[in-house]
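Late entry, written up from scratch paper. The run itself happened at the end of the previous shift, but nothing got recorded in the book at the time, so transcribing now.
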Amino acid sequence: MRILVIEDDKDVAAYLIKGLKECDHVVDHCADGKEGLMMAASEEYEFMIVDRMLPGMDGLSIIKAIRATGKQTPVLILSALGDVDDRIEGLKGGGDDYLTKPFSFAELLARMEVLMRRGGTKSEQVTVLHVDDLVMDLLSRNVKRGEQKIDLQPREFRLLEYLMKHEDQVVTRTMLLEQVWDYHFDPQTNVIDVHISRLRSKIDKGFDRPLLQTVRGAGYMLSAHS
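Output as recorded:
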């Protein structure tokens, strides 16, 4: 693919460019928001990775301007701002996905693949996640399974969101520590086990078909397929 990376952090940009080129992608890079918008508007890209905070013009303004021209190029937002409200703002602003820094390059590639499979079109999937009869609305923060409303604590919501975005994929404990708890080390606690147990009791208890599966020796997976 031909990819445009708009990122002003030299280290992050170099990391992205090196990794993407190793995957046989063609990469153009820009460190300034206004220049990045000009490149995005004048050239044809199959995918864009846009930092949220940029000199010249911020990432959300770039994306809104691109969408105003009718272009539906898939856009992955990178940002150090990881609160739910920040992510919702990014998705509502025209981004197709939102990845917080620091990030795993393997996860970035996986998210790119998912967006490309969707064809880069804006749809309900951007803000509403489905796994079988389990539904999560990222904007209203409502979660239901069938007709039953499920009340989740903030961390449980974030955990379930991550699992739903990786449906039918094995999610490791390291991935959960990094992406849900923002830990980049092993705290040597059972925090994941406790939250998985609570989440399982809320989304699976009383239903005929369990969705949250433990993959022995590997991690966890949310799937409608047993």
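The chain has a mean pLDDT of 89.
(Scratch paper discarded after transcription.)
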